[in-house]
Specification:
The protein is α+β, with helices and mostly antiparallel strands. Helices cover 20% and strands 32% of the residues. A hairpin with an 8-residue loop joins β9 and β10. α1 packs across α2 and α5 packs across α6. It starts with 11 loop residues before the first strand and ends in a 26-residue tail after the last strand.
C-alpha cells in the first residue's frame, strides 16, 4: 500500500537451508555466516514488484499490473484467481528456490488457493463454493508458511520498517452488493535481540486494512506499489491525462472517451466494464511494453473472473538462481 518513500531497493532475499537438522525448513539469511556455524546452502526468494491498479466499476472490478525491474530477477505482481468472485494480487517474496536443485521449494502464488481453502497444511477451512469472505482468514492461511521460512534466521536484518516480507491485495465481491471489498494484507518482520549476534526473527500477524469501500475514495480508483518509493507515472495518471496517439485513439471511440472523462472527473464508479475494459487495456499496452510482465484481469459480477491480458509465461524464470551482485538483506540501501 502507498506509504512513505524509501530509497531502499533489492532484487532478491537470501535464504538458507541448514544442512544439519533442517532438511525441510527454509530460513531467511543475511550477510555471511561465521565459519564456526554449520555448513549451509544458499536459497533464493524472488520478489514480485511493481504497480497494481484497481478500478471499482459499476458492474465489476478491473485489475491491471505492471512489473518494475528495479533489480535483476524481479517478477511482476502476480494475479491469482481464487473463485469466481475473488482474486488476490501477490507482491513481495513469492518464489523460494534452491539454486543447486534448479527447482522451486515454495511458490506463494501457486500455493495460495489451496492454503486459503484449507486443502493443504493446517490452514483455516473455507468453502470454495461460498467464496473467501473473511480477509483475516485468507491472511492467516499464509502466515505459517512465511513464519516457517523466517523462524530460524538469527542474523540481524537491515530492512526498512515499512517494507513487508510479502503483501496480498484481496478483492472480494459480497453477495447481492454492487461495491467490492478490497483489502491489503501485509506481513511485517520483527526481530528481537537475544545475545551477542543472535536474534529471534518472526513474521508478525497481518492486520488486514480495508482499502475499499472508503468514505474518502468516491472514485473507486486504487494504486498499490511495492516497494513504495517508485514515483514514476502510473496507469491512473495516464488515464486521467492521455496524450499523443493515445488521446487520439480515445477520442475516436465515444464509449472510451466517456469512460476516460468519468475517470478524470472522479466518477469511475459509474463506468461500466464494457466501456472501461477496452480503455484500460489500450492504455496499459501504450504505457507498458510486454517485457514488463503486464497483465490485466476482470471480476465481472455476472460472469466471474476472466483474463484480458494474460501474464507472459516467460515472466517467471525456470529454476532461478542468485544473480552476480544481487544485494543481500544486509546490503546498504540504494540512494
Amino acid at each position: 500500500m502507498a506509504g512513505p518513500g524509501r530509497g531502499w531497493r533489492f532484487g532478491h532475499l537470501l535464504l538458507l537451508l541448514a544442512a544439519v537438522g533442517l532438511a525441510a525448513t527454509v530460513v531467511l539469511a543475511a550477510g555471511r555466516q561465521d565459519q564456526a556455524e554449520e555448513q549451509v546452502n544458499e536459497i533464493v526468494a524472488n520478489l514480485a514488484s511493481g504497480h497494481v491498479t484497481l478500478f471499482a466499476a459499476h458492474d465489476g472490478v478491473v485489475v491491471a499490473t505492471i512489473g518494475s525491474q528495479f533489480e535483476p530477477g524481479n517478477l511482476p505482481p502476480l494475479i491469482v484467481p481464487m473463485t469466481g468472485s475473488e482474486l488476490v494480487v501477490v507482491l513481495g517474496a513469492v518464489d523460494w528456490v534452491e539454486p543447486t536443485a534448479h527447482q522451486p521449494l515454495f511458490r506463494l502464488d501457486a500455493a495460495l488457493p489451496g492454503l486459503a481453502h484449507g486443502t493443504t497444511g493446517n490452514a483455516p477451512r473455507l468453502s470454495a463454493e461460498t467464496g473467501l469472505s473473511d480477509p483475516e482468514q485468507v491472511a492467516l492461511s499464509v502466515l505459517e508458511p512465511l513464519r516457517a521460512a523466517a523462524r530460524n534466521l538469527h542474523a540481524q536484518l537491515d530492512l526498512p520498517a515499512d517494507l513487508p516480507l510479502a503483501e496480498l491485495v484481496f478483492v472480494h465481491q459480497p453477495t447481492n452488493e454492487s461495491a467490492p471489498d478490497i483489502w491489503d494484507l501485509s506481513y511485517p518482520l520483527k526481530q528481537t535481540f537475544l545475545q551477542q549476534n543472535f536474534w529471534d526473527t518472526e513474521v508478525e500477524r497481518p492486520r488486514p486494512i480495508e482499502l475499499y469501500p472508503d468514505p474518502e475514495n468516491k472514485n473507486g480508483l486504487l494504486e498499490i506499489r511495492y516497494p513504495t518509493d517508485d514515483r514514476s507515472p502510473g496507469l491512473i495518471d495516464w488515464l486521467s491525462k492521455p496524450a499523443g496517439r493515445l488521446l487520439q485513439d480515445v477520442q475516436l471511440d465515444p464509449k472510451m472517451a466517456k469512460a476516460q472523462q468519468e475517470i478524470a472527473g472522479g466518477d469511475a464508479r459509474k463506468t461500466r466494464l464494457a466501456q472501461l475494459v477496452p480503455l484500460v487495456k489500450m492504455t496499459l499496452e501504450a504505457m507498458a511494453p510486454a517485457s514488463t510482465g503486464r497483465a490485466m484481469a476482470v471480476l465481472d459480477w455476472d460472469r466471474g473472473f476472466s483474463w484480458v491480458i494474460q501474464p507472459p509465461t516467460t515472466a517467471r524464470p525456470q529454476g532461478p538462481s542468485r544473480l552476480p551482485g544481487a544485494p543481500t538483506l544486509k546490503a546498504a540501501p540504494h540512494h
